[in-house]
Amino acid sequence: MKRVMAVTAAAIMAITGTAVFTNSEMHAAADAESFDYGDLIAVSDDENSADEETTSDEESCGIKGDVNGDGKINVTDIAKAAAAIKGLSGLDTESLWRADITCDNKFNVTDLSKICWTVRSGKRGSSTVMERPAPEPVQPAPEPEPEPIVKSPAASLSKVYDNAVGTRLANLYSGYYNIYGWPNGQCTWYCLGRSNEKLGVDMTLKGLTGNAINWYYNAQWINPASVGTEIRSDCVCVCSSWTHGYGHVVYIEYVDPDTGAIYFSQANRLGWATNYADNGKIEKADSYADFVAQMNWLYLSPVGFVYPDLM
C-alpha cells in the first residue's frame, strides 16, 4: 500500500509543482504494483494543460498522451490512464494508442509518468505527438475468373446442317433405298430409306405399310409410343394434303435444341412437277411455325410424327 500511495503522491506533486519526480523514481515506487488514482486532486483543465495548438494531422490522427481524446493533455488523462493501469476501467483501441506515449506498443506506468511530466511542464515533446500509422491498404478482392464458355454439341451439329442446306446428304444410290414394293422417287420411299440409312431402322420390317396419310395410324397400331405430336430429330412428319388423299411424309433431319431451327428433307415435294434432282436436299425452317408455313405453301398440313427408333 505504501508503494501505491507513493505513486499517487508523485503524480499529484508533479501536477501541482510541489516536486518533480523522474521516470526512474516513479518506476521504483511502483515496480510491483499499479496505483490507486482515487486520491488524485482535481486540477482545472485550463491550468497546467498541454493545450498547444494542434495541427490538422494531429486532429485527424490523435495526440499521444491525450487519453480521452478531447484535444488536451491534462489531469483527466492522468486519471483515465491510472484507472486503466489499476484495472478499474478499460480503454478502447483509440485511447490505448494515445495512452502509449512512449510508442513501444505497451501501456504501463512509464507512459503514465510521461503523461504526468507533460502536464507538469505544459509542453509536448517531439516524441509526444505521433501520427497514427497509416492503415494497411485494403487490397481489392480479385475478380472471379469468367467461367469458360462451353459450346453446346448442338452448335457444331447445326453448323453441319447449315452448311448442307441446298445439298443432299442422303446417298440415294445405296442399298438403303432399294426397297421392294415402294415406288422409287416417292416421299414414302425416301423416308423409309433415310430412316434405315441414318438409324438402321427398316420400318417395312416393323410392319409399316400404306400411303403417307396412313403412316401415323399404322405406326400407332404397331406401337403407340412410336407416334406423337412433338417434333424431334430423326422422325417422320406425316402431313395431309389439301389437293389429294395420299398425304405426304417429310424426314426431320435435326431439331436444334438451342435455336429451335428445323432441318428436314423430302422427296416428291411437288408431285408430278418435282425435279428428281431436288429429292433429299436439306431444307431449313427457323422455327416450328416456319416449318408449318413451308408445309402450307406446299398445300400440306402436319398431322403428327412417327418415331422410327421406337417402332
H/E element sequence: HHHHHHHHHEEEEEHE
Number of domains: 2
Distinct helical segment count: 10
Q: Which descriptor suits the 3D outline?
A: rod-shaped
The CATH topology assignment of the largest domain is endopeptidase fold (from Nostoc punctiforme)
CATH architectural type of the largest domain? Alpha-Beta Complex
Category by helix and strand content = alpha+beta
What is the percentage of strand-forming residues?
A: 5-15%
Arithmetic mean pLDDT: 78
Give the biggest beta sheet: 6 strands, antiparallel
State the strand order across the main sheet.
1-6-2-3-4-5
The end-to-end distance, rounded to whole angstroms, is 105 Å
Low-confidence stretches: 1-8, 12-61, 125-131
Number of strands: 6
CATH class annotation of the largest domain: Alpha Beta
CATH superfamily of the largest domain: endopeptidase domain like (from Nostoc punctiforme)
Summarize the structure.
With 311 residues, this protein is an alpha+beta fold. The chain has 10 helices and 6 strands. A hairpin with a 6-residue loop joins β3 and β4 (262-265).
Key traits:
311 residues; alpha+beta; endopeptidase fold (from Nostoc punctiforme); 2 domains; six-stranded antiparallel sheet; 6 strands; 33% helix
Task: Describe this protein's structure.
The chain is of the alpha+beta class and 311 residues long. It folds into two domains: 120 residues, no CATH class; 157 residues, Alpha-Beta Complex (endopeptidase fold (from Nostoc punctiforme)). The chain has ten helices and six strands; from the N terminus they run H-H-H-H-H-H-H-H-H-E-E-E-E-E-H-E. It has a six-stranded antiparallel beta sheet with strand order 1-6-2-3-4-5, with helices on both faces. The radius of gyration is 49 Å and the shape is rod-shaped. The chain starts with a helix and ends in a 5-residue tail after the last strand.
